[in-house]
């Protein structure tokens, strides 16, 4: 029988698995650029629908991540090869793809301030950034293609779902890949089929634990990935702060002053918040005893916050391209449009920043409450988050927050990597 913590986590994942294709269906339905139309002109003609489409699409792929992880979590033996590929594809690749969708907000702001020809010049400028291609587009598209295709196969191979599930879900995803930008109803066929498949599966699995492995520990490759990310995330954050445009004690006023540093910093900051995702999943997944409710809340807050927050770094590339192509007055106008976009700020930026930074403190608090680490660990994490706000004024002071988080999450990594203590043998009663 599943523990209350794992049952709660499993049901939350199944709820996400259903909500994700529903949002994907809604996003497709409101997309103003479907059919035989010119993309830039179509979204410029209906910016409200374009913003709603981007928001729904981003949230859809964000929710697919915990949904797919819920199907992969119980896989230990059969299906483990497929799961070993699908897990990082979902938690790193698909999460990156969700961030890529946010670039439409910045493109729409450029269109509202300039014209189609200038928009295309900015898009061409962005397309030439090697850091964006290698750090975002390649892993994002790979994760987007592999995670939804391999996860149903892995779950069926492991015996946790019937083969009917990939037989329905995979055609749904393929239909979406092929016809996502065609006119309805063909564009809606794939998302609707995915919604039906996931809803039926969630209803069947809601109360039934996976056979035979309900209380097993995490698969070895997931534990290894989690430990590596616990250390790699703050190191990537340090690299992002160390490459900020500007000097040791000041940040440059504009990215165009040092475009190479701006691109590198945006990549490393994205990578840092992204690597924290498998890190917090691994830590909170181990907390099933004392304080398990706090662990579930901390994990959910951190996971959803980080999945939003890492994607916001895509805006640095758009800002750099705008500075390199547009005059200062139009750059200011584009920036004002983006910062004033309520759907972006309330739907992505605010929950992303608050969830990510609050979650990075709550996760160590939950670990200390459960006895996995001592209480100085969440104190170090809290000091790191405070330093991130207070000392981000240049490269040298900006390193304080990553170093504090490295100390906290390094201690978490040591605790996670330590072998589980074996219970003491219970002596048999004496017999006469």
UniProtKB/TrEMBL annotation:
Entry superkingdom: Bacteria
Keyword Protease appears in the UniProt entry: no
Keyword annotations of the record: Membrane, Transmembrane, Transmembrane helix
Keyword match Transmembrane: yes
Bilayer-crossing regions: 53-73, 85-108, 128-150, 162-182, 188-207, 227-252, 264-285, 297-322, 342-363, 375-393, 399-417
UniProt name for this protein: Uncharacterized protein
Annotated source species: Phytohabitans maris
